[in-house]
Amino acid sequence: MLLLPLRVLRRRFQHVSCRVPCLQASQGAKANRAGWEEKSRSRVKWRQLEHKGPYFTPAYEPLPDGVRFFYDDGRREKIGNFKMEPPGLFCGRGDHPKMGKLKRRVMPEGVVINCSRDSKIPEPPAGHQWKEVRSDNTVTWLAAWTENVQNSFKYIILNPSSKLKGEMDWQKYEVARRLKGVVDKIRAQYQADWKSPERKKRQLAVALYFIDKLALRTGNEKEEGEAANTVGCCSLRVEHVRLHEKADGQEHVVELDFLGKDSIRYINRVSVEKLVFQNLQHFMEDKDPKDDLFDALTTASLNKHLQDLMEGLTAKVFRTYNASTTLQEQLRVLTRAEDSVTSKVLAYKRANRAVAVLCNHQRAIPKTFEKSMRTLQQKIETKKAQVAEAQVELEKVKADLRIRGESKSKSLLQKQRRLLRLEEQLVRLHTQATDKEENKQVALGTSKLNYLDPRISIAWCKRSGVPIEKIYSKTQRERFAWAFNQAGEDFEF
DNA sequence: CAGATAACTTAGCATAAGGAAA
DNA sequence: TTTCCTTATGCTAAGTTATCTG
Are A24 and A86 in contact (CB under 8 A)? Predict the structure, then answer.
């Protein structure tokens, strides 16, 4: 039993970047868990409610292996997070003011169950009651509770492989594809708006330019003292921007340096149009470093504006659109028909990486990176030696032939072939090393899962003869099941 | 009409699982 | 078989956005 004062715990975990293991501190913990297990053993069939809206109200079915399912219109689907979050110490990311606070055990009395009216309601653990049982088929969650540290909602939701999640994912990409049709017009408009006499309009135009060009997030206001101090586009402060008339041999360079989502640092230097530069100079005039760059702009007004430009358009659609477009374009540039499957997969990873860099998806450098890099360097050295050796042998054979006055021999061909093969292997090792180095701090998964229309990848696999298993793991294939029969080899985002 | 709330997507990290090497 | 390394998955925090509310 860990019984340190909370302030000691907080201090202890202040600089710990890893997640703090859950502390099973509550006396009633065992009994509670048993209670939850009991709940999980009740068999409930779920059916869709009578009226068919965009959503439905599902329910759970426990299975012996611990995987739980629910029924939607007779279809059995997986549930995503079927376990309750255990109590523990809250460990936010970055410099979080609530780091180390105790996250309490969730009791059935705090849980709302959402299930169809005509189904058998799941039993609460013995001696307990649900907070509420409701039948709301306009939402997608199965159960919900309030988390005490952040005072926010938590939900039991469906697995990404479910039809519901799949349909929503599909819709997301369809909105992004619609943006493709109007993006030229939108770009022309915000460029024109850089010259607007209205400060508000110019701020909106510059912010939208950043969101489009640099794939920045919208950047909502955050309550001070509630979360780490991070920003996005609309919440950028003067201190995050530096302007250089000339830098890196380019004109009108904007330097951005701020902490974004998850306190991941965004650093970029980019040359912008003169009008953008001048606008930024104006926005920064007579301000303190801590002042908002876009003082006349809110995320609400930005999204309101976007909604007027295209139905369903919001700021985050630009990230999806630019990510997917970049993948498609990069795949086109990097794929060569005559390449082996291995090289093609490498090309895919490169294209994926271009997107991850655009979206600033970073990861901690793997702990084993240095070591595995050394191993790879070792391999390269060995291969180099082999190449050198093969060259010497080849020369020897050539000299031999000259003495005998011959021009060809079986041995010569053999040696030539061997040298060629070794050289190819060396080149491959070099690319592997470069790739590893360039990828050490880039997280590919996030964009692959959330930003890249799977139909682009599926179509590319079909076109270039790459088995889909080389690109998507089992769960990823299940997640993107909706895309498989949609994407022929000629699919265009 | 701004701020709060609710419900959803997006995010990186730890670790489990899988596979290669010893 | 055991160990060592990479990849896949689970977890839950941290965003975005639409809607509600006073």
Answer: yes
In this structure, what token pair is assigned to residue A273?
């149009």
Query: Which residues of A spanning 191-220 put their CB closer than 7 angstroms to strand C?
Result: 217-220
Domain boundary among A126, A159, A192: A159
**Quick one: tokens of A478?**
């299940």
The CA distance from A172 to A192, in Å, is: 29
Q: What is the CATH number of the domain that holds A170?
A: 3.90.15.10
CATH number of the domain encompassing residue A443 = 1.10.132.10
Query: Nearest nucleotide, C1' to the C-alpha of A262?
Result: C14
CA/C1' separation A351–C7 (Å): 19
Mean pLDDT of A6-30: 29
Same domain, A329 and A372: yes
pLDDT tens digits for A196-239?
A: 999 999 999 999 999 999 999 999 999 988 999 999 999 999 99
Residue-by-residue DSSP string for A446-475: HHHHHTS-HHHHHHHHHHHT--GGGT--HH
Q: Are A330 and A302 within one domain?
A: no
Active-site residue A451, yes or no?
yes
Using CA atoms, how far apart are residues A193 and A405, in angstroms rounded to an integer?
Answer: 79
Helix (H) or strand (E) holding A262: none
**Residue A493 domain-assigned (yes or no):** no
Contact A353, A448 (CB under 8 A): no
Count of structural domains within chain A? 3
Q: How far is the CA of A38 from the C1' of B4 (A)?
A: 37
Stretch A32-43: mean pLDDT: 26
Asked if the model's pLDDT at residue A482 lies above 90, the reply is yes
pTM of the predicted protein model? 0.84
How do residues A18-29 score in pLDDT, each as one tens digit?
A: 222 222 222 222
Q: Which domain holds residue A423?
A: 322-484
Whether residues A382 and A424 fall in one domain: yes
Q: Which residue has the higher pLDDT, A251 or A40?
A: A251
Whether A489 is in a domain gets the answer no
At A254 the three-state DSSP class reads: strand
pLDDT at position A431, please?
81
What's the pLDDT at A70? 66
**Domain-terminating residue out of A159, A180, A215:** A159
